């Protein structure tokens, strides 16, 4: 218990150790958002109770739980992958159970879960239809989503020992969890307290499965480096293949995007309706946002030696733009092929909009990525899934906001007029930053090279 309390205090203090005012403002914005969404969902429940909507009370409660379930899992992968917090080193003399318990509790001590808890409390206070039973069930949904995210992180970051007894135990307990969920899904609104007992039993089985899964995957993935010596390969191919971190981050982003698009395609094949039409935010994955938010919003953090070579050889704007395009060309090609295969096979009704949106997003996000790489550089340190930011959170949020503007023509075709304005703004920002590049280059060198000294 002392270890948990100490870790929780250290985690809370770390949030406000640097940029205290900025983080307090962000937390305040999160609490205001929790209040707004609490009022919105309470209003939906009220309308459903009066029969003014097509949705019933149970459906609104179900969508509320699904909303929290989806946002918790997605936040770990988008706009960038967030690695699992390994707070206690493996060599530290602590038992596996105590380490697991401490990390699980400390992970829940975060501003995100604090804001989410406030959202549920606001909803509970504003709506009499959201009872204490529903509140407790929502907390179980949050814990289930968090354990799901942890399990996915373990599979990604560690080497699994498939024949280990702990892995078989994890499979058995996960099977028990799935069996209970098939009979009584946790996101369905509970009508009696006995259902809550079943959900608690299912969550207990899932937590036990996650514990055994971590024991079966105690070793981190081995690092390997592959180099291409073929002179026939283009520079773009070499920049993609020879940089392990950039390549694997991009491939992981492509896999995540393919999963989202594949889920939408499966829903369309079965029901004839697109998930993208029901959940508009999924449209973000149709564009090339993952390419930029995963790597190219910090292109010189990944390709720092390339930046230094250009800086010391010529240092001209033309050369910087050219090498950036060379590094970006192959990932964009892969992303575009993935997107247009999906559009041609499953969503060809919006092919014109997709072409316009995709082309415009490249013209917006490419200049923004260069601006972010110069103005807000980040040192790419540690392993591929180390607990460190690999791109600026601020510019990732800006990229998501600008991409959101490109979907306005779905409301009305006249809103295509937004495109030239946003593209012009991105190019203007790029020109302004490149003019000040002689001042920024010292910060780039200090961030990417002197940080190791």
UniProtKB/TrEMBL annotation:
Annotated transmembrane regions: 24-45, 65-83, 104-126, 132-155, 167-187, 193-213, 249-269, 281-300, 320-344, 350-372, 393-411, 417-434
Domain of life: Bacteria
Alphabetized UniProt keyword annotations: Membrane, Transmembrane, Transmembrane helix
Name of the protein: Uncharacterized protein
Gene source species: Pontibacter korlensis
């Amino acid at each position: 218990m002392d270890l948990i309390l100490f870790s929780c205090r250290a985690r809370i203090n770390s949030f406000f150790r640097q940029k205290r005012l900025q983080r307090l403002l962000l937390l305040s914005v999160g609490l205001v958002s929790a209040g707004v969404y609490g009022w919105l969902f309470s209003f939906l429940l009220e309308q459903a109770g009066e029969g003014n909507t097509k949705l019933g009370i149970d459906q609104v409660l179900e969508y509320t739980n699904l909303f929290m379930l989806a946002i918790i899992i997605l936040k770990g992968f988008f706009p960038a992958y967030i690695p699992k917090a390994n707070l206690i080193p493996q060599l530290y003399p602590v038992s596996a159970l105590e380490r697991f318990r401490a990390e699980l509790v400390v992970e829940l001590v975060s501003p995100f879960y604090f804001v989410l808890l406030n959202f549920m409390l606001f909803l509970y206070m504003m709506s009499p239809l959201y009872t204490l039973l529903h509140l407790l069930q929502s907390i179980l949904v949050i814990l289930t989503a968090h354990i799901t995210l942890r399990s996915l992180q373990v599979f990604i970051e560690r080497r699994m020992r498939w024949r280990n007894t702990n892995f078989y135990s994890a499979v058995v307990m996960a099977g028990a969890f799935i069996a209970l969920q098939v009979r009584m899904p946790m996101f369905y609104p509970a009508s009696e307290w006995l259902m809550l007992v079943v959900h608690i039993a299912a969550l207990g089985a899932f937590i036990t499965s996650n514990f055994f899964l971590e024991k079966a995957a105690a070793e981190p993935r081995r690092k390997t480096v592959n180099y291409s010596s073929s002179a026939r390969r283009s520079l773009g191919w070499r920049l993609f293949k020879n940089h392990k971190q950039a390549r694997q981050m991009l491939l992981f982003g492509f896999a995540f995007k393919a999963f989202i698009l594949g889920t939408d395609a499966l829903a369309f094949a079965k029901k004839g309706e697109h998930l993208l039409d029901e959940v508009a935010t999924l449209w973000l994955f149709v564009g090339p946002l993952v390419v930029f938010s995963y790597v190219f919003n910090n292109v010189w953090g990944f390709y720092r030696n390339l930046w230094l070579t250009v800086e010391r050889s010529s240092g001209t704007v033309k050369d910087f733009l050219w090498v950036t395009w060379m590094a970006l060309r192959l990932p964009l090609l892969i992303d575009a092929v993935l997107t247009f295969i999906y559009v041609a096979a499953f969503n060809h009704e919006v092919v014109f909009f997709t072409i316009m949106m995709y082309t415009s997003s490249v013209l917006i996000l490419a200049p923004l990525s260069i601006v972010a790489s110069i103005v807000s550089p980040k040192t790419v340190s540690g392993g591929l899934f180390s607990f460190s930011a690999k791109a600026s959170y601020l510019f990732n949020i800006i990229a998501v906001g600008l991409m959101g503007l490109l979907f306005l023509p779905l409301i009305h075709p006249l809103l295509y007029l937004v495109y030239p304005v946003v593209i012009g703004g991105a190019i203007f920002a790029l020109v302004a930053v490149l003019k000040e590049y002689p001042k920024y280059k010292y910060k780039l060198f200090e961030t990417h090279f002197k940080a190791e000294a």
